Amino acid sequence: MNQNDKGQQNGPGGANDERFAEDENEKTLTNRQGHPIRNNQNIRTVGNRGPSTLENYEFLEKISHFDRERIPERVVHARGAGAFGYFETYGKVGDEPVEKYTRAKVFSEAGKKTPVLVRFSTVIHGIGSPETARDPRGFAVKFYTEDGNWDLVGNNLKVFFIRDAVKFPDLVHAFKPDPVKNIQDGERIFDFISNTPEAMHMITFLFSPWGIPANYRQMQGSGVNTYRWVNKDGEAVLVKYHWEPLSQGMKNLTQEEANKIQAENFSHATQDLYEAIEEGNYPEWELQVQIMEEGEHPELDFDPLDDTKLWPEDQFPKLKVGKMVLDKNPENYHNDIEQAAFGTGVLVDGLDFSDDKMLQGRTFSYSDTQRYRVGANYLQLPVNAPRKHIATNQEGGQMSYRSDKPEGVSPHINYEPSTLNGLHETDQRGEYYKPYVEGYLTRESIDRKNDFKQAGETYRAFEDWEREDLINNLVNTLKPCDPRIQQKMVDMFTECDEDYGRRVAEGIKMGMAAGAGSMNMESSEEIMPTKGKLPKHGGSPMGSTGAADAVDEAEEKGHDVDPY
Ligand code: HEM
């Protein structure tokens, strides 16, 4: 809409005119041309048995819009749910004024509220897949700040599988269903993982009960990658973000518990979020950050930019920054949640990237896919548009329905600089942070890989029941795998922790009654032998104990019926 023409928008025939035709009221069904629908039960036909005719505009509009109801689903994180709410800043980071570290306005002035949209998701399977999957959960937050949008695109787990963006399509292909069978296959997953040692920390979380959070409300969130905060003097620190659930607490499921829930409801997490908000039981999270001085930190045994690592809390305590409350359900799932577009590049003044190469890869990928998935003008959609002044010289593109020219600016000037009445840039606020970068252009992995140490620490930090579930889930998924993959995995578990490797090896050996594999280990009573039989053609979904049994049961338990 051209804001200069505001006067012409109102009144009869203006763009804002919502008058009724003579026999209409607000509940009268119309088509998108404004024609009242007088018969929504029958198409136009020659006689009441047909054939039908081609000029049925109402029918054609209705059915052809229906044919286009879906947009491409997200290539990852397709299954999701979301809600609106607000973020309230404490004005401090821990006990210090937040301005010491960042000039981002979203954090200043204790008690200030910023509207947010949150979308939770699972990663691997399609849009209608069960929400009990063993999978990381997405935790993406859009802050509609006074300085424009800030997206914090995170997961529930605080580490990730890989540290280089070029490996992301391979990681996702290995976890997605087999391109021939269209079934997720643990053998393909562990084929990739057994050649990707940096994934061991994430795998240790993923196959434990932390891989199936009870629902979206009762889980943590994390930015995972390292970002920067910049203050008014242009000084920067490294930060990691964490969302910690408040009164609703935190809960995970064992595989067995998840199986039962999945049998009754494959949308339990969406339902849980929607109902909690409808009932006024608003979920709340506290935003906490870990701060590290800028620099490479050679004194640490890990690289601060490595997203497969946790920053030890005893050295880098979590400092409280504010809290988020979700108190409003979407008005329309497709408009508000399916079309929502988050990206790691969407930052505001005072928040910055780090040199984390994964983060830079992500930043290209998000808006690239959104231009394809939602369209070139995805930022014009109300859910994605910032809730503030917008003025650009961008023009056209599919489905453009507004020109970003505010009142008082010439609609003819869509370029800059101009002496005429066009848009112009504004002054820099505060000092730029200017990192000095120097080095050989290279294709190398980082020096301090340390792939196994933190995975071992995480294994030892689990409670007994968590370790037991972890071992069982790994054994169940590794059991049908090629013995070379089993051996590589056991070797890596052993590098993480001797007990970890031994228990997985023993479990695989015990599960070998059916004859697959050739691990040379003594069996042990400590491990529960897995119940299910091996799938006939190899492979089964992650963590599954009874994938092959389920296939047979469907045939065995099915009731014979006669054709009609
Ligand atoms: C190089 C690594 C990565 C790449 C290339 C990548 C790429 C993508 C892409 C293409 C999407 C679909 C976006 C859309 O269609 O709107 C997506 C979604 C998502 N990614 Fe990543 N991703 C990477 C790593 C990560 C990591 C480490 C996290 C967690 C911190 C993460 C969290 C998410 C979330 C939460 C979503 C869903 C956003 C939503 O709800 O719309 N991704 N990612």
From TrEMBL:
Listed EC numbers: 1.11.1.6
Source superkingdom: Bacteria
Composition skew (Polar residues), residue ranges: 28-49
Any one GO molecular-function label of the UniProt entry: catalase activity
Keywords, sorted A to Z: Heme, Hydrogen peroxide, Iron, Metal-binding, Oxidoreductase, Peroxidase
EC supergroup of this enzyme: oxidoreductase
Reaction catalyzed: 2 H2O2 = O2 + 2 H2O
Record flagged with keyword Metal-binding: yes
Boundaries of every Catalase core domain copy: 30-424
CDD domains xrefs: catalase_clade_1
The keyword Oxidoreductase appears for this protein: yes
Renumbered residue ranges of the record's region Disordered: 1-49, 521-564
Cofactor: heme
Role this protein plays: Decomposes hydrogen peroxide into water and oxygen; serves to protect cells from the toxic effects of hydrogen peroxide.
Membership in a protein family: Belongs to the catalase family.
Name listed for the protein in its UniProt record: Catalase
Organism from which the protein derives: Aquibacillus albus
